[in-house]
């Protein structure tokens, strides 16, 4: 239910049909319910309602077949949950009309069913009249319950605070005691397991016994070592805080402890207890899912009290022994910290725990500046930002296997670390090992393409298991990226540092759009003076320097299309079918609605019939050129209004600028010595490298004075940004702003930059909200080498797969893959209706001695063989070619050629509701294709033929020019020759020289400084008659891929 919606729908329909034919009503209910859930996620609400109502009717008719009342209740509750999800989905999208029974009704009704007396027993609802408190309750194996350790914990804290640093010996004794406790625990378990008969339920319960056994030592360790699982910092407690432990114990006495229950059941050995425990697991899981959904039904800030109650109830269901009683209006912070944001071995509620943490943190952030946040916990004056971040880090670890929750948690963590830039918000304890830019950029990249990361790394793991792979998969970076997150939040800081240091050797730009809910959240956190519809989060990653993170408020881009509407109304008839928007509706439609309009009118102009007369042709071309102009204007406005002077963040670093390093070093020294500014070198390097595009130097330099690791910027034409911000920042350091301005301008004048200077490639990692935009055709990027990948980890995975293929072929492994464009297979006009295209290319392909087919349809086997045995696959036809080789067949391939797909929308990704985007380019990437050139939208055949021909000509020319010398390689060679390498033995020198001579040809051909596949996109776009309407459609998926020449081709 999180991957391919189309494939899932097919299997579910099969299951439903089989159940119907065999007259299995309960299976029919199940399949119809899940189909309804699938359609809700796809936002096909009519189909969803039809399936859910069908399941509801079947369940009513088959009521007598259910002998178990609890099974019937579970089915009814699940159906109610799906009906609630349907109403909530309609409400969130603002498109469909909600029914009279709202989501709140469905969720509440389901919760009521889970609180009926049928669920109450001695385990789920202990005797309320009992005088036994949590302090007296003993878990299985005579171990003390977690809750009963609080007073002892308080005593330990008091002792450690009084003793001071001299308590290190005591800490070691605690660790020793902990080890001894583990030994005793093991012996106890052995005694239990020696019983003659062990049921499956008893075995499962025994696995959870370690929760209650280790809880006491975990709490003590948290106090002594102040690890991240104790995010409120117990070592910093005051005497008044310690006195509140008695109140905490009072609450524990009322609620009792849930974690000790499995141990009690295991000790009792009663089959009824095991059954009741299993039912209690199911009931609590469903209850927590419903409560986290119910929270979304209340509006902020009007119903904030209702949200407060629901969240407290969810905590009760997660942690309380008796969740049927919800009498408290707030909870102690200490109780929450030790019962909710915890990594507990054997926890059956891991995902539900993560969701509850997420919802509570979202609630506390949403009302961060109000009293509501303080009322959630007892006896506190404020919630610390670092506490929220540390709780979310625990959730980040807990939900790592569930993509949709993982992405939500990651995005909120990124926003928290960027929002912490305000002076009122402190993240000092979390930012000690790493700066906020490291945390923000890491969580930002983790929030993009999580599902694809799992797929790519799974493919890489499978390839690495092959026996013939010896070197490439043993690299440290590969091992690191195969593990998306560490096993515990304690190791997270170290992992983040290593992860970012292991990035590929090229610039990576991550872009996300934060709309609607996040827009209002950021306005609350940042106290932003004006309303903003959406924010853009940009992270620039490179292993060469520290990450840069920028949060930009977006201005809406509006355009007038009255003239074009008049032309279309007089020329075209109504088309046979309407345009289907591939992405449905995202935040882009709120801030750039003109883009959707342009693509829809472009589609209508290509499919709408009209009478072929000279006058109509003139009108048709007028409309097309008008659309081309509007798209050009939209992209220019997007760059100016969204990025402003920060467009330099999108640029790759210089490759052959002679004096750049010297100028940069001198500027850093001058700013530090003359202006007393501890400048951010990473940002300064980007700004200096983008000097050609820096039109507002004051705005840029002002951020250099701010001493921030991340930046919340204002863009556009704001006087406050251009003047006031810099003046304020400079005055804080006692220097005049003119000095910094002058130093920066002097550096720009000295810098020797011309149009012949090349930049390194850039890889864009785009969130699904923005992947439909032609970012590569922004003026700042249009003539540069730009690629796209679905996630950061997928980049390293793709490069590792490429190195595996190079090793198999006996080639020297280089940092990026390379192809021979003459080792190609073409598929030309397979439907037979693009005669002009076939006439244009068929003879040319034959002249180049390429293999392929023209004018006829291939078999799947033919194409699969061609993709695995050639370096390049060329397709000129309709669509993406998936009608000839389906996506699932492509993904089965062990290796795959680079592809040039010149059909309409061949590179478009379809977003089906809340499912991850799907498209043919992603299938090629998963199969191991290093690069895919494809179209984002519909194009006309003649114009796209021009583009394709220009690309092929450029690749072949580059192949023929390979022996030419590389300026950058020669420069490096001269530097090495001038180095006086003393102390080296002649034997070593001779060995090195022989190795160099053996690899000379390969290193020259595969030089990393030479233009690669994507470097020719800019000039090919300009060949098109409509350089934007047609030229902006083709983009490059994949990684930088060089051009080389095989010996036998």
TrEMBL record:
EC number: 3.4.22.49
EC top class, as a word: hydrolase
Residue numbers spanned by region Disordered: 983-1006
Catalysed transformations (reactions): All bonds known to be hydrolyzed by this endopeptidase have arginine in P1 and an acidic residue in P4. P6 is often occupied by an acidic residue or by a hydroxy-amino-acid residue, the phosphorylation of which enhances cleavage
InterPro entries to which the protein is assigned, alphabetical: Peptidase_C50, SEPARIN_core_dom
Compositionally biased spans, kind Basic residues: 983-992
Keyword vocabulary terms for this entry: Chromosome partition, Hydrolase
Positions of the Peptidase C50 domain: 821-915
Alphabetical list of PANTHER family matching this protein: EXTRA SPINDLE POLES 1-RELATED (PTHR12792), SEPARIN (PTHR12792:SF0)
Protein name: separase
Species whose genome carries this gene: Stylosanthes scabra
Taxonomic path: Eukaryota, Viridiplantae, Streptophyta, Embryophyta, Tracheophyta
């Amino acid at each position: 239910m999180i991957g391919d919606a189309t494939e899932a729908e097919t299997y579910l329909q099969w299951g439903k049909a089989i159940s119907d034919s065999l007259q299995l009503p309960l299976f029919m209910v199940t399949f119809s319910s899940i189909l309804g859930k699938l359609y809700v996620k796809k936002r096909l609400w009519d189909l969803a309602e039809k399936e859910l109502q069908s399941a509801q009717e079947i369940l009513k008719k088959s009521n007598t077949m259910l002998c178990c009342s609890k099974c019937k209740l579970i089915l009814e509750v699940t159906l109610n949950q799906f009906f609630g999800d349907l109403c909530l989905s309609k409400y969130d999208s603002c498109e469909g009309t909600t029914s009279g029974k709202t989501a709140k009704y469905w969720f509440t009704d389901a919760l009521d069913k889970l609180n009926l007396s049928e669920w109450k027993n001695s385990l789920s609802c202990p005797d309320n009249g009992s005088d036994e408190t949590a302090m007296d309750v003993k878990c299985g194996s005579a171990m003390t319950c977690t809750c009963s350790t609080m007073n002892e914990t308080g005593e330990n804290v008091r002792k450690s605070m009084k003793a001071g640093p001299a308590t290190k010996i005591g800490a070691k004794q605690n660790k020793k005691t902990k080890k001894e406790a583990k030994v005793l625990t093991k012996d106890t378990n052995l005694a239990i397991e020696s019983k003659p008969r062990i049921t499956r339920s008893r075995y499962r319960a025994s696995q959870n016994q370690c929760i209650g056994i280790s809880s006491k030592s975990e709490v003590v360790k948290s106090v002594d070592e102040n690890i991240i699982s104790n995010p409120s910092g117990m070592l910093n407690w005051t005497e008044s805080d310690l006195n509140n432990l008695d109140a905490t114990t009072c609450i524990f006495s009322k609620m009792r402890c849930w974690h000790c229950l499995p141990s009690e059941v295991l000790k009792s050995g009663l089959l009824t207890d095991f059954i009741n425990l299993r039912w209690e697991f199911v009931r609590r899981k469903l209850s927590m899912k419903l409560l986290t959904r119910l929270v979304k039904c209340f509006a902020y800030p009007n119903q904030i009290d209702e949200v407060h109650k629901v969240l407290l109830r969810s905590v009760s269901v997660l942690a309380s022994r008796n969740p049927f009683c919800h009498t408290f209006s707030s909870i102690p912070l200490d109780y929450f910290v030790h019962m909710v944001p915890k990594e507990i071995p054997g926890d059956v509620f891991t995902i539900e725990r993560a969701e509850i943490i997420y919802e509570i943190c979202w609630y506390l952030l949403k009302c961060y500046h109000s009293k509501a946040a303080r009322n959630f916990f007892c006896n506190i004056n404020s919630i610390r930002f670092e506490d929220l971040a540390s709780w979310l880090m625990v959730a980040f670890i807990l939900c790592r296997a569930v993509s949709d929750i993982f992405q939500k948690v990651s995005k909120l963590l990124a926003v928290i670390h960027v929002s912490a830039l305000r002076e009122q918000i402190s993240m000092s304890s979390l930012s000690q090992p790493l700066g906020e830019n490291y945390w923000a950029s890491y969580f930002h990249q983790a929030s993009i393409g999580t599902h694809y990361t799992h797929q790519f790394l799974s493919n890489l793991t499978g390839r690495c298991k092959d026996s013939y792979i010896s070197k490439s998969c043993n690299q440290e970076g590969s091992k690191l990226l195969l593990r998306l997150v560490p096993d515990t939040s304690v190791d997270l800081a170290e992992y983040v540092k290593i992860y970012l240091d292991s990035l590929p050797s090229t610039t990576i730009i991550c872009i996300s759009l934060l709309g609607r809910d996040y827009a209002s959240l950021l306005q609350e956190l940042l106290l932003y003076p004006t309303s903003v519809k959406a924010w853009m989060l940009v992270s620039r990653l490179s292993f060469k320097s520290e990450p840069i993170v920028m949060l930009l408020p977006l201005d809406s881009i509006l355009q007038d299309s009255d003239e074009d509407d008049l032309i279309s109304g007089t020329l075209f008839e109504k088309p046979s079918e309407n345009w289907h928007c591939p992405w449905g509706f995202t935040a882009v439609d709120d801030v750039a609605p003109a883009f959707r309009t342009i693509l829809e009118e472009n589609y209508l102009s290509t499919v709408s019939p009209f009478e072929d007369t000279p006058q109509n042709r003139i009108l048709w071309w007028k409309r097309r050129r008008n659309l081309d102009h509007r798209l050009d204007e939209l992209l220019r406005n997007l760059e100016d209004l969204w990025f402003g002077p920060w467009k330099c963040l999108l640029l790759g670093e210089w490759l052959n600028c002679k004096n750049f390093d010297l100028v940069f070093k001198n500027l850093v020294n001058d700013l530090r010595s003359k202006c007393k500014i501890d400048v951010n070198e990473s940002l300064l390097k980007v700004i200096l490298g983008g000097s050609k595009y820096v039109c507002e130097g004051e705005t840029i330099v002002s951020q250099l004075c701010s001493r921030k690791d991340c930046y919340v910027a204002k863009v556009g034409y704001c006087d406050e940004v251009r003047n006031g911000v810099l003046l304020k920042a400079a005055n804080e350091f006692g220097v005049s702003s003119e000095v910094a301005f002058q130093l920066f301008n002097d550096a720009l004048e000295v810098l020797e930059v011309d149009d012949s200077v090349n930049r390194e490639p850039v890889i864009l990692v785009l969130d699904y909200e923005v992947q439909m935009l032609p970012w590569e055709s922004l003026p700042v990027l249009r003539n540069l080498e730009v690629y796209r990948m679905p996630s950061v980890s997928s980049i390293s995975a793709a490069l590792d797969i490429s190195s595996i293929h190079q090793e198999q072929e006996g080639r020297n492994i280089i940092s990026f893959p390379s192809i021979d464009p003459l080792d190609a297979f073409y598929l030309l006009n397979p439907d037979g209706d693009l005669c002009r295209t076939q006439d244009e290319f068929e003879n040319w392909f034959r002249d180049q001695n390429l293999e392929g087919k023209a004018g006829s349809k291939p078999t799947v086997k033919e194409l699969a063989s061609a993709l695995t045995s050639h370096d390049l696959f060329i397709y000129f036809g309709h669509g993406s070619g998936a009608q000839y080789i389906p996506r699932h067949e492509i993904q089965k391939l062990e290796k795959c050629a680079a592809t040039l797909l010149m059909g309409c929308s061949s590179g478009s990704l379809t977003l089906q509701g809340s499912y991850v985007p799907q498209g043919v380019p992603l299938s090629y990437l998963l199969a191991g294709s290093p690069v895919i050139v494809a179209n984002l939208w519909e194009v006309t055949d003649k114009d796209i033929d021009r583009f394709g021909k220009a690309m092929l000509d450029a690749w072949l020319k580059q192949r023929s020019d390979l022996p030419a010398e590389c300026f950058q390689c020669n420069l490096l060679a001269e530097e090495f020759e001038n180095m006086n390498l003393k102390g080296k033995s002649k034997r070593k020198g001779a060995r090195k020289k022989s190795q160099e001579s053996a690899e000379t040809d390969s290193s020259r051909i595969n030089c990393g400084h030479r233009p690669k596949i994507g470097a020719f996109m800019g000039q090919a776009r300009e060949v098109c008659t409509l350089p934007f309407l047609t030229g902006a459609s083709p983009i490059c998926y994949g990684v930088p891929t060089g051009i080389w020449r095989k010996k036998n081709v």
